[in-house]
Design a protein that fits this description.
The protein is of the alpha+beta class and 385 residues long. The chain has helices at 4-20, 28-31, 34-46, 50-56, 63-95, 105-108, 132-142, 178-183, 204-219, 227-238, 243-252, 256-271, 277-289, 295-305, 309-317, 321-327, 338-351, 354-367, 372-382, and strands at 100-102, 122-127, 145-150, 154-159, 164-168, 191-193, 200-202. A hairpin with a 3-residue loop joins strand 3 (145-150) and strand 4 (154-159).
Amino acid sequence: MEKETDIWALTRSLLKRALTGAELPDGTTERLTEDALQGILRLSVRYDLAHLVACALPELHGETAKAFETAKLKAFMRCEQQDYEFRRLADALEQAKIPFLPLKGVEMRDFYPEPWMRTGCDVDVMLHEADIDRAVELLLPALQAKPHGRTPHDVSIQTVGGVHIELHYRGFEQNRGGKAGEVLRDVWTHAHSVSGGMRYALDGEAFYLYHIAHMAKHFEVGGCGVRPFLDLWLLDRNLPTDTEKTKKLLSESGLLKFAETCGALARVWLEDEPHTELTVALERYILRGGMYGDIANMVAVQQTKNGGKWRYIRYRLFLPYDSIKNQYPVLKKHKWLTPVMQVRRWAKMVTDGRMRRTASELRCLREDAGGREQVETLLRELELQ
C-alpha cells in the first residue's frame, strides 16, 4: 500500500496534468493500483479536487475509477446549476439598476482550462450596503429563493435548486480583515463597470489582493485547503496586473511575504520547483488543515496571536468589543450592553452546538495538538504575526 506522502505525490502529479497538460512522470500509471486510487480518492475528496484528478487519470477500470468519473460529472452539474442561477441573478440586478460585483469562483472559472473545473460552494456577489435590502427583496421572488441567514457583512439566500448565494456588502469581516480590510474597505474604488452595465469587476491588482487576503483569513482559522493555491498559480500566469502596484497593495496589507510563499508552494506543486524549509512547513500546515481548516491549527494560530494559552481562553470566553459588536450591531450605539450580549452569546453557543467546538479547542490547548511552536515559527516567517 502506498504511503500517505506517496499518495500526495501521485495526487500532485495528476493535478499538474489536469491544469497544465504535462505528461505524468514515468512509472506513474503502474503505481495507480486500486489501493493507490482509493487513497488518492480519499485525499482528493477531502480537498474537493476529485473532479480535477479525474481529468488527468489514464483510462482505468474498477469501482474507484468509476467514483472519479462520478465526481467529474457532479462538478460539471454543480457548475452548470450555479452558472444558471448567477445568470438569473445578474439579469434581475441589471434590470433593477443595482450595481453588483462578482467575487471568488464566479470570476476564477475563466482562468481554468474549463470553467466547471473550478468548483465552489457558493455564488458570491458584492453589493453596495445601501442596495442590500432592496436586492434581497428583489431576488427572493426572482430566484424562487428563501433567506438563509444574515451577518454584519453579508446576507445569504438559497434558491429552490439548492444553490447558496452570498450577497456581501463589506469586503471583509471587520474583525478579520486586518490591514487588507483597511486597504479594501471601500472595495468599489478598485472596481470598474463591465461594458457600461451594472456588472462590475475588480481591477487586477485588487482582485489579486482580495484572493490573498481571503486565503490569509482562512489560514488563520485553521487552513485554506489546496484549491486557493491552484487559483493563485493560474492568477500569476493569466491575470493582467501591474506587478509593482500589486506588491505595493500586498505590502500595505502586510501580506507580501505570505503571498510570495504561497506562490512558491504553488510552483512546487505544479512546476516541480524545489521545496524550501518554509514551503515544507506551509505545506504541512495546509495538508493537515483539510479544505475548511483544522481546529488544532486554528487553536495554535490564535493562541500565538493572543499571547498564550490563558489569554486565548479569555478571548474565547469574553470576545473583545471590536469583535462582539459585529455579532450584535446594537452595541455600536449602546456599548454599555456589552456584558448583556456576552451572556446572550454564551446561551446561543449552548443551543447551536458551538460549545462542543469550544470544548474541542480546549482539548487542543491541553494537548498542543497543533504544535504551537511550529505554528508560531511559521507565522513569524510568513510575517502574519
